[in-house]
């Protein structure tokens, strides 16, 4: 059965490449540099199991999730195997998996080399997280503050500051805000058009990035939205009999991405000792979807793909 990996495939391809750009862009860092850790905030695209430890209906701790993971068991990852946050730390040579911060089996070494605060179903909009009772943006930030306290107890204040300063810190939010909260219900549409709603989301993202800076993060990568209308779930729900990409959703993603890029550029200028980077995961994945033969793939790959969410 094909499911979430198909939705995430373009994201996998560009995730690690983009992160290496972040690192190399800061102070002309050599390509062979090593990173002490990786920190991730986000939603189901990168959640490695936090939702297992909270009261929410948004859980994936049952088959067929995890069928291709080590041991073939579900782990709380919204995938049949690893998710991009795992692939990132593996590619950077840090460790095989990025553990969920709420995992009670975390070790001191896990904390030193990075953890994951992402929660499936989360968004920039507080309403998005409240609807399904998962870790909101503000809650993930509170957990990060708790993490810093623990890290200082283990590594000391000076080493903790170095780790936070040199660690790629990643944000992956927004898909649930657009597809579920805005287009999936009446509450936000009754008060915002899509442009003003995108402004709202960008304002939350900007505040969050600046909060991370205040807490010591200096290498921050903020992922834009993929072509949401081409996700298998949206093509199935909204794409008609032929399961075409939903242009309305793609336009919303582009609008948000444009506004987010401008805002991050503005924030970045305020903090010359840091680097806050917008990472485009819209254009390359869309090209892959529209021109699969260019990448050695059949056009039937996306036409026949399905998702469980």
Automatic annotation (TrEMBL):
Pfam family of the protein (one): Lipase_GDSL
InterPro entries: GDSL, GDSL_lipolytic_enzyme, Lipase_GDSL_AS, SGNH_hydro_sf, SGNH_plant_lipase-like
Top-level taxon of the source organism: Eukaryota
Family stated for the protein in its record: Belongs to the 'GDSL' lipolytic enzyme family.
Protein name as catalogued: GDSL esterase/lipase EXL3
Organism listed in the record: Penstemon davidsonii
């Amino acid at each position: 059965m094909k499911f979430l990996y198909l939705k995430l495939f373009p994201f996998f391809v560009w995730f690690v490449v983009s992160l290496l750009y972040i690192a190399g862009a800061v102070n002309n860092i050599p390509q062979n540099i090593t990173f002490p850790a990786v920190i991730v905030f986000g939603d189901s695209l990168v959640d490695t199991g936090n939702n297992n430890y909270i009261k929410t209906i948004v859980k994936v701790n049952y088959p067929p999730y995890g069928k291709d993971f080590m041991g073939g068991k579900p782990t709380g990852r919204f995938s049949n195997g690893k998710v991009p946050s795992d692939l990132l730390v593996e590619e950077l040579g840090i460790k095989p998996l990025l553990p969920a911060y709420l995992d009670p089996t975390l070790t001191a070494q896990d904390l030193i080399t990075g953890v994951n605060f992402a929660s499936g179903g989360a968004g920039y909009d507080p309403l998005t997280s409240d609807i399904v009772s998962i870790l909101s943006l503000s809650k993930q930030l509170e957990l990060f503050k708790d993490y810093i306290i623990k890290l200082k107890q283990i590594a000391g204040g000076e080493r903790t500051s170095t780790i936070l300063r040199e660690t790629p810190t990643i944000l992956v939010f927004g898909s649930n805000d657009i597809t579920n909260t805005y287009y999936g219900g009446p509450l936000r549409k009754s008060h915002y058009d899509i442009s003003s709603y995108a402004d709202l989301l960008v304002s939350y993202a900007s505040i969050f990035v600046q909060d991370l800076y205040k807490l010591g993060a200096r290498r921050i990568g903020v992922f834009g939205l993929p072509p949401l209308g081409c996700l298998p779930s949206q093509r199935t729900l909204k794409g008609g009999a032929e399961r075409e990409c939903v242009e309305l959703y793609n336009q919303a993603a582009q609008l948000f991405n444009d506004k987010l890029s401008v805002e991050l550029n503005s924030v970045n200028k305020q903090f010359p000792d840091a680097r806050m980077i917008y990472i485009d995961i819209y254009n390359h994945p869309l090209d892959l979807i529209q021109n699969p033969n260019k990448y050695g793939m059949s056009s039937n790959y996306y036409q026949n793909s399905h998702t469980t969410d």
